[in-house]
Amino acid sequence: DRQIWLSRHGESTDNAIGKIGGDSPLSEKGRKFGECLSRFIFKQKVLFRQKQMDEYRSASTSSLPTSVPQVKNFLVWTSMLKRTIETVENFDQREFDIMHIRFLNEIYAGLCEEMSHSEIEIKYPEEYSERRKNKLYYRYPGMGGESYLDVIHRINPLIVELERMTDNILIVTHQVVLRILLAYFLDVEKEKVPNMEVPLHTIYCLQPKAYDTELKRWKYDE
Ligand code: F6P
After folding, report:
1. Residue 174 annotated in active site
2. Going by CA atoms, what residue is nearest to atom 1 of ligand 1?
3. Terminus-to-terminus CA distance in the chain, angstroms?
4. In testing the pocket of ligand 1, which one of 106, 179, 195 has its CB within 8 Å of the most ligand atoms?
5. Inter-CA distances, 86 with 19, 29, 134, Å
6. Considering the entire predicted model, what is its pTM?
7. Which helix (H) or strand (E) holds 172?
8. Is 195 a catalytic residue?
9. How far is the centre of ligand 1, averaged over its atoms, from the C-alpha of 57 (Å)?
């Protein structure tokens, strides 16, 4: 048994004013979420270990002696953007293996980076309506601009790695990447991915089982 924990970063100062993309730091609210996340995940790590030991104790009274289960590594992956890195800054590095990975960055909105949706609608009305018509295939204009499909391809190698490993892990990432990861594990069709509800300050736990994946969700009470 292993657990994959997923969350978006805490609220950033750009989230608070409705701007997309960019690399802004956390707002005060976002920092509070980060503190709470570190306590919550540490508690989950302890509970996981207790459950593992309980299972071991009840198995070893009934059958042949088995060895004590190893403590699982607990990885924490974030993107390379400030808002995810700051979200995990309270995590204890002796308890968690923390890594920052560019593949987990948010969709890059090219010329529309750091604009609000209404600014995009005014400045680039055609782009705005193209995206509304087909959010999955639409690629933002300008150097490096991405579409949902581009992000799906970008994070594919990470999904392969996640499937392969057996460690517990927390991934702190962004709206688009979180939608794609959840959709992959929960078998949601591609067309539905761009409109999935994945609010800020919500923590998901996936537990892959033999035939499906169990999902639990916690909403941070602000
Ligand atoms: O607004 C936060 C954000 O993560 C942006 O950086 C990003 O462009 C957007 O959400 C993605 O959501 P959607 O595809 O629904 O615009």
Report:
1. yes
2. 20
3. 31
4. 106
5. 19, 12, 33
6. 0.96
7. strand 168-173
8. no
9. 47
DSSP string of 12-24?
Answer: BHHHHTTB-SS--
Q: Which atom of ligand 1 is nearest to the CA of 22?
A: 6
For 211, the token pair is: 């035939």
ipTM above 0.90, yes or no: yes
> Largest Cα–Cα distance of the chain, in whole Å?
71
Residue 165: C-alpha distances to residues 52, 158, 206 (Å): 18, 11, 14
pLDDT tens-digit series, residues 172-199: 999 999 999 999 999 999 999 999 999 9
Residue keyed to tokens 């996640």: 162
106 as an active site residue: the answer is: yes
User: Of all residues in the chain, what percent carry a pLDDT higher than 90?
Assistant: 88
Check if the beta carbon of residue 134 is closer than 8 Å to that of residue 188: no
Give the number of residues written for the chain.
222
DSSP state string for 181-216: HHHHHHT--GGGGGG----SSEEEEEEE-SSSEEEE
**Strand-pair category, 4-8 with 202-208:** antiparallel
From the list 220, 98, 106, the residue with the least C-alpha distance to 167 is 98
What's the CA gap between 143 and 9, in Å, rounded? 25
Pocket around ligand 1 at a 6 A CB cut-off: 15, 20-21, 106-107, 109, 174-176, 194
Candidates 157, 37, 162, 151; CA nearest to 88 is 37
Q: What contacts 134, CB < 8 A, 6 or more positions away?
A: none
